[in-house]
Specification:
The structure holds two protein chains of two kinds.
Chain A (H helix, E strand, L loop, with lengths): L7 E8 L2 H15 L6 H22 L7 E8 L3 E7 L25 H9 L2 E4 L5 E7 L2 H8 L1
Antiparallel strand pairs in A: 1-2, 2-3, 3-5, 4-5
Chain B lengths: L5 E6 L2 E6 L3 E2 L2 H16 L5 E5 L5 E2 L1 H16 L3 E5 L3 H9 L7 E3 L2 H7 L4
Parallel strand pairs in B: 2-4, 3-5, 4-6, 6-7
Antiparallel strand pairs in B: 1-2
Helix pairs in contact in B: 1-2
Classes of the chains: A alpha+beta, B alpha/beta.
Chain lengths: ~150, ~120
């Protein structure tokens, strides 16, 4: 992961509640829109946050409001970084069936992890599978377009 | 009382459902949206359904899941489903998940109307 000087950083713990998660995502996106991220990159970050937090709240903590999500992030013009930790049992990220295979393509689930891995620059899960760390680095060509 | 999640119109024998919400990511919104689309497909007169996403700017994998459920039902019923007006960023999510190979997708509503099979 690259080193950055964050222009915005936060760490908080909140109960398993998607409404709270959505209001946090809205706050983060509104801050990022002030920075020179492209629309495409903003979409990628928003979708990854949505999928990461759904995974922690719905699958990790099984929607139990007694269980908490620990969420921290740093935002800057060049790199955004997020860490999402739930209190669930975790999962084996390597055992998630490939949702794009012919056998699974019409299955209802399994797309969240794939979307996060595709849309973000660096994505890691801890060994237990209850901590997701993801980072988006702003693309050079986008920076060039913005400054042209 | 659920909110209206789709506007419905008809062109010839095609039923067009225009999604009303800009974001399809909230559980309740997705549930109501999915149920209203299923209700539409339950209508015996509806054999060709076009879902227009031109107002939608964001959707999560939960909305994709609801769409897959609908697609299975429509296929089982022997009906046709086409999607149109999908934002470029959302289209990227369809490509990554290869759902662009599962659904028939057209860029514009007019093109979609023309591409239904005559029955």
């Amino acid at each position: 992961m690259s080193s950055i000087i964050p222009s915005w950083a936060c760490e908080l713990t909140f109960p398993s509640n998607m409404e709270r998660a959505h209001s946090l995502i809205d706050e983060i996106m509104s801050e990022l829109r002030r920075m020179p991220w492209s629309d495409r990159e903003l979409f990628a970050i928003q979708l990854s946050l949505e999928e990461g937090l759904i995974n922690a709240i719905t699958h990790g903590n099984k929607g139990n409001p007694e269980k908490k999500v620990r969420f921290s992030y740093t935002l800057s013009d060049e790199v955004t970084r997020f860490r999402i930790e739930d209190e669930g049992d975790g999962f084996d990220v390597n055992a998630v069936p490939d949702p794009t295979s012919i056998d699974n393509i019409e299955n209802a689930s399994g797309r969240g992890v794939l979307l996060v891995r595709s849309f973000m620059t660096n994505v890691t899960f801890n060994e237990t599978g209850n901590v997701l760390t993801m980072e988006k680095v702003r693309a050079r060509e986008c920076q060039d377009v913005k400054t042209a | 009382m659920p909110s209206q999640r789709i506007d419905i119109k008809s062109v010839a024998d095609i039923t067009i459902a225009v999604c009303c919400d800009m974001k399809l990511n909230d559980d309740l919104v997705i549930q109501e949206w999915g149920e209203q689309l299923i209700d539409l497909s339950d209508d015996a007169k509806t054999r060709k359904i076009l879902i227009n996403f031109e107002r939608v700017q964001f959707m999560s994998s939960s909305a994709l899941r609801a769409l897959i459920t609908l697609n299975k039902k429509i296929k089982d019923d022997g009906c046709q489903l086409i999607l149109c007006g999908i934002d470029d960023n959302i289209m990227e999510a369809f490509r990554i998940t290869r759902l662009d190979t599962v659904f028939k997708i057209e860029k514009k509503e007019d093109d979609a109307i023309r591409s239904f099979t005559v029955s």
